Amino acid sequence: MGITVYGCGQDEAALFREMAPRLGVVPTITEAAVSEANIGLALGNRCISIGHKTQVTNSTLLALSEAGVTYISTRSVGCNHIDVEYAEAVGISVETVAYSPDSVADYTLMLMLMAVRHAKSIVKSTNVHDYRLTDVRGKELRDLTIGVIGTGRIGAAVMERLRGFGCRILAYDTRPKTSADYVSLGELLQQSDIVTLHTPLTADTHHLLNRHRIERMRHGAVIVNTGRGALLDTEALVSALEGGRLGGAALDVLEGEEGIFYADCSDKPIESRLLLRLHKLPNVLISPHTAYYTDHALSDTVEHSLTTCLNFAGRDQHG
Predict the structure, then answer these.
(1) Cα torsion for 205, 91, 318, 74, to the nearest 10°?
(2) Kind and range of the H or E element at 60?
(3) Domains in the chain, please, with CATH?
(4) Could you tell me which of 29, 33, 30, 32 has the C-alpha nearest to residue 18?
(5) Out of 52, 213, 257, 304, which one is annotated catalytic?
(6) Are 53 and 37 contacting, i.e. CB atoms less than 8 angstroms apart?
(7) Of 101, 135, 225, 273, most Cβ neighbours within 10 A?
């Protein structure tokens, strides 16, 4: 069978070309994100694979349906870049692709450690050959309470790593899945020195940490977000950071990151006023949605993208 792979980088393309023949799949590969302009590449292929970096418009979904596409595999654990309900209404099934949670879990721990050890200020100083110690000492994770919001595969992997540091771990999830110490969201926010976000972005979790909930957090607490930017009310976050209520933030995702993250913006103005304010703060770390970006996770993603397409084709054939 054939599949069309959109939004495919060079290293991804190499893996698709290597793995696809073994599974009996013929891939058509393009670096361009799926759009109405390149629907023609999907003609004859009922399954396509897309990246997570670009929003898929409903008009593109309709055009895909008209071109005979009945299945979209998105190479991500989230699908907030695509209107799944609309896709289903025009006859297209959408599924996410699981990959090793270790990439994001490792990165989350790194951000926690960087935040409580003031890594941004230290590296910034040493880059200009200022090797003095800062006035504020760092903290050790074993002395802290960490609140994990969302205990699916990634949240569970984060907790597994945290246990090795000896810290107190609190968890919140609408559907508890592990043996962790679950508490209400209010309790978690009041008791945690670090709050880390690992819940999917849905209508219910949009601005899960809003102004009211951020105000309930422990004074000097740190927020880590490797989930989705809109889980956080960024305006409220910036206010709490600038006002000194929060001790810091480490953000791998950001509201309005589209068109900024994954692009070289060094020679053009940044449109996001909030991003510019965050960059100015010495206790805020920002990275461009890169927690998932490991060789192991890429291999998982390509393999699972191919197998989900094959599984759908098999179900469709026998259904």
Answers:
(1) -50
(2) helix 58-66
(3) 2-99+295-318 (3.40.50.720), 102-286 (3.40.50.720)
(4) 29
(5) 257
(6) no
(7) 225
The rounded distance, in Å, linking the Cα atoms of 254 and 227 is: 9
Q: What is the pLDDT of residues 132-173, one digit of tens each?
A: 998 899 999 999 999 999 999 999 999 999 999 999 999 999
195 in the Ramachandran plot: left (φ > 0), alpha (ψ -120 to 50) or beta? beta
Please state, in angstroms and as integers, the Cα–Cα distance from residue 269 to each residue in 211, 261, 262, 287, following that order: 28, 13, 15, 18
Is residue 218 part of the annotated active site? The answer reads: no
Q: What is the pTM of this model?
A: 0.91
The one catalytic residue in 75, 118, 213, 289 is: 289
Helices (H) and strands (E) in the chain, counts: 11, 11
pLDDT tens per residue across span 36-62: 999 999 999 999 999 988 899 999 999
Within its chain, how far is the Cα of 210 from the centroid?
A: 19
Concerning whether 289 is annotated as a catalytic residue, the answer is yes
pLDDT at position 316, please?
64
257 catalytic residue (yes or no) = yes
**CA-to-CA distance for 38 and 236, rounded, in angstroms?**
40
Q: What is the DSSP letter of 209?
A: B
Annotated catalytic residue within 228, 235, 303, 318: 228
